[in-house]
Design brief:
Keywords: Disulfide bond, Glycosyltransferase, Golgi apparatus, Lectin, Manganese, Membrane, Transferase, Transmembrane, Transmembrane helix
Number of helices: 10
Radius of gyration: 29 Å
Bound molecules: 2-acetamido-2-deoxy-beta-D-glucopyranose
Strand content: 15-25%
Largest sheet: 6 strands, antiparallel
EC number: 2.4.1.-
Number of strands: 20
GO molecular function: carbohydrate binding; polypeptide N-acetylgalactosaminyltransferase activity
Protein name: Polypeptide N-acetylgalactosaminyltransferase
Shape: elongated
Structural class: alpha+beta
Cofactor: Mn(2+)
Amino acid sequence: MRRFAYCKVVLATSLMWVLVDVFLLLYFSECNKCDDKKERSLLPALRAVMSRSQEGPGEMGKAVLIPKDDQEKMKELFKINQFNLMASDMIAFNRSLPDVRLEGCKTKVYPDELPNTSVVIVFHNEAWSTLLRTIYSVINRSPHYLLSEIILVDDASERDFLKVPLENYVKNLQVPIKIIRMEQRSGLIRARLRGAAASKGQVITFLDAHCECTLGWLEPLLARIKEDRKVVVCPIIDVISDDTFEYMAGSDMTYGGFNWKLNFRWYPVPQREMDRRKGDRTLPVRSGNVELHLIPFLVVLGINVETNQCLDNMGRKENEKVGIFNCHGMGGNQVFSYTADKEIRTDDLCLDVSRLNGPVIMLKCHHMRGNQLWEYDAEKHTFLHIITQHVNSNQCLDEPSEDDKMVPTMKDCSESRSQQWLLRNMTLGA
Ligand SMILES: *[C@@H]1O[C@H](CO)[C@@H](O)[C@H](O)[C@H]1NC(C)=O
Ligand SMILES: *[C@@H]1O[C@H](CO)[C@@H](O)[C@H](O)[C@H]1NC(C)=O
Ligand SMILES: *[C@@H]1O[C@H](CO)[C@@H](O)[C@H](O)[C@H]1NC(C)=O
């Protein structure tokens, strides 16, 4: 044990001397070049500050490790926001981050005349240090002429420090900051919309309340919008560890998109995009999701008139039966889309019937109609399905039978209430 401590001392002292050497070397090599006496006296002081700031906890995006003695306290604090608050509080609001851009991106030139932006940040009971670090990173790493304002939308936080103290603090920052308070807890989307309504910039940028922007984050986003004002852009999103606050570069070989439950997911960049970009990874990836020919579509809940229950995929997988369950109004497994291709779709699975009298199973959507074709009759509220191999096989989606109360069935169309399904548009974020 003592030997170990001894080793550490030796290591630390030698490390210190190496650092002193490096410092001296830098000092003299720099000052050989500069004749100006003023700079001679100014530079070392400046560099001392800078090197200190690069060494503080979490600087350059490094991990912050909590000493053994504080582990208990750390675990307590972790529960407050579900991240390592102790580590976060140790890191400077303006901590430095590595420049993780591809080499080709660092030298890219963007037009001068970019549109300016309002940055909207929604928070609910956010930690002081993560919120402030988000704000500082926006201010410090965005050209100010492009920053119209920062709008903080407080989704009914209960913590006192997010009230008057926050208002007082942000008054002194170099960019106009507006704070909007929701009267009651409203959820991310409503809060964002409120922020958007109050924004003055030409572009609205939505950020999470615990993120950090890196150098050059904003210009490429605005440049794409300047090229085509109808695009919605998204940067590569890297990861900050919830445990150590280490900054970890993400992959540029994935892109964000929405699945059919409108949940955000990462998808691998398709070959078609690799080809289009001819290997130049500094070009943006175009997401295909939006341009699919599935618009217009309804995001619906299918509610059976007789049982008042909703179609529900029950979290089941491909090749399993679709279910039916009490409507919970939370979206999730009960969100189905009736697409322009006349499919009843849940995520990437479609309701598929290949035999008379069912069953109704979920299979990968093939867009070939056939077994996945459903005619919705908006007046009778019925879902008619034709099995192509059979003559006179028109059947309708019906309530469950006595044998299994959890799966809808297929029966000859009768216009009975059990075959009537109401479609309800779902409000996003509700
Ligand atoms: C952060 O701000 C402090 C105080 O103004 C300053 O000393 C330090 O150099 C800054 N750090 C970075 C990485 O800019
Ligand atoms: C943003 O751009 C618009 C249009 O050019 C301009 O009127 C407005 O003053 C700009 N806002 C800021 C804060 O620069
Ligand atoms: C759902 O919204 C779409 C698009 O706005 C509209 O055409 C449709 O009639 C609505 N359907 C229902 C059931 O409210």
